[in-house]
Amino acid sequence: MAKAIMIQGTMSNAGKSLLAAGLCRIFRQDGYRVAPFKSQNMALNSFITEEGLEMGRAQVMQAEAAGIKPSVYMNPILLKPTNDVGSQVIVNGEVIGNMSARDYFAYKKKLVPDILHAYHKLEEAYDIIVIEGAGSPAEINLKAEDIVNMGMAKMAKAPVLLVGDIDRGGVFAQLVGTVMLLEEDEKKMVKGLIINKFRGDKTILDPGIEMLEEKCGIPVVGVAPYLQIQVEDEDSLTERFDRKQEVGMIDIAVIRLPRISNFTDFNPFESMKGVSLRYVHSVAELKNPDMIILPGTKNTMEDLLWMRQNGLEAAILKAASAGKVIYGVCGGYQMLGKTLKDPDGVEAGGEIKGMGLLPMETVFAAAKTRTRVNGKFQTISGPLSGLGGVELEGYEIHMGVSMLEEGTKELTQISSMNDLSDAKLEGAQKGNVYGSYVHGIFDKEDVAKGIVMALGKMKGLDVSEITGVDFQTFKETQYDLLAEGLRKHLDMEKIYQILNEGL
Question: Are 180 and 26 in contact (CB under 8 A)?
Fold first, then answer.
C-alpha cells in the first residue's frame, strides 16, 4: 500500500497547493509513482476528466506535476459556492445538489465512505500519496466534524507537515498558535514545520527557527522561498486579480466578475511576452484594451446584472461598436446573447435581457453538460478569421442551452473525446464578437498566437516577435522549476524519513 504525507497550513493561501505539487514532482523525479489527494475542495475553478466527471483544478495541477492523468479519486468532494452561505455539492464528479453551509456541515460525515473509497483506490495504484489539507487544522469550531485536515490525516494515518506563510507576517505566531490549538494526539502527528514564501537573508531568521523548534518540539524541515512560478492556482486565493500590470503591446482585459470561474482559461496569454492580461473590476480599470473577454461564472444572470449596474456592460457595448474584439467563454458567452431564461430557478430564476451582441437565446436547465472535447474552429469572418481550421482542445461545463437564430454562424466544431463520431457545432460569431462554451480553448499555441497576431494586425503593429507557447509544455517547465527550487530549500532527507516512518 502507498505511503502518505500530508501538507496542512496555518491558514488559507499559506502555499499548501504549490508545496504539494512540488513534492509530487520531486517524488516523481526520484522514480516513485505519486498521486495527489484532497478530500474536500472549495473552488469555482473546476476541471472535467476524460470520463466527464468534475473535480477541483488544484488537484489537476498536482496530477500534472506528478505526471499522471487527473482522476476524481484525487478530489472526491468539490464545493462550488453559489452565494455567501451555500454551495453546489459535487461528489465523485457528480452534482448531488445545492446545500446551505449549515446543512452541508450536518451532512458531510455521511461522505466519509466516499472519501475512503477514493483514497483506497489511489493507495492501490501508487507508491506515495501527497495529501493536501484545507484552511487551518486549528479551526476549533469545525474540528469535531473534520474530514479534510486532521480528520483526514487520521483516516490515512499520514504524518503532517505544517506550513506557515511568512509573507503575510506573524509566521511564528501562526505556527506556534496552530500547534497549541491541536489536541495532544494531533500534535504528535505533526512531524515537520515549513516556513513558506520567504524573501531575504535566511541567517537573520535562524534564531527564530531555533525558538520555534523549542516551543513546538517539532523540527523545521525547510524555509521555502517566494517562488515566481506560473501554475494554476485556486480562484478564491489567486493573486492574479490584484496585480497592477502595465499595458503591453497587445492588451487583453478580462472582466473580473464577482463569481468568476475557470479564469485559468486565460493563463496562456500571461506567458506571451509583449501581451498584458489584466483582470478589471470597473470601468476605470478597463482603459482601452484590444480585446475584452467575458469569462465563465457560477451565476451568469446575477453577474450580468452586476455589470449592468456598474457601467461595465455599457463600456463593453461601446467597445464592441468601435470594432474591439469581444470574446465570451461559457457564462460570458451566454451574456452576449439577447435573452437569458431560467424557468426552473437553476440560477436566479426568471428572465433577463442579455447584452444583445449575439443573436441567440439561452435557457438554463438542471442537467449539467460535462464533456472533454477536441475539434477545430469553423471558417469564420471578422478580426479572428485567421483561426479558421485551427485545432482546439478543452472541456464543456455548463447548465444552459443556447439556441442561435437562423443564419447565425457557429464558432467551432467539436467532438467528445469519448465519442469522436458525436461531432457538433457550437459557439457563435457575429462581426467582431465571438463566444464559445469551451473552456481551455486558448491552451493550444496556434489558438493563443493566432488571436495575438490578429490583434496586432488590427493595430497595424508587427507582433512577429511575440511567440506563442504550447501551454502544456510551458507548465512542464514550471513544475521542474518548482521542484528545483524546493529541493534547494527543503530538507528532503528529513522529509523522506518522515514519509517512511509514517505514524
Answer: no
Q: What pTM was computed for the model?
A: 0.81
Residue 188 has pLDDT above 80, yes or no: yes
pLDDT tens digits along 290-324: 999 999 998 999 999 999 999 999 999 999 999 99
Contact predicate 134/468, CB 8 Å: no
Return the number of other C-beta atoms located less than 10 Å from residue 498's C-beta. Answer: 18
Assign 234 a pLDDT band (cuts: 50, 70, 90): low
R_g (Cα) of the chain, nearest Å: 23
Q: At which residue does the C-alpha cell 503575510 appear?
A: 168
Task: List, for residues 261-295, the tens digit of each pLDDT value.
Answer: 888 899 999 888 889 999 999 999 999 999 999 99
Annotated catalytic residues are 330, 439
Of 253, 8, 293, 271, nearest in space to 134 by CA: 8
Spell out where 200-349 has E strands.
220-225, 250-255, 260-261, 275-280, 291-294, 296-297, 325-329, 339-342
Give every CB contact of residue 200 below 8 A, 6+ residues apart in sequence.
none
CA distance 315 to 321: 10
Would you state the pLDDT for residue 85?
Answer: 81
Contact present, 397 and 370 (Cβ < 8 Å):
yes
Residues 6+ apart with CB under 8 A from 446: 390, 391, 468
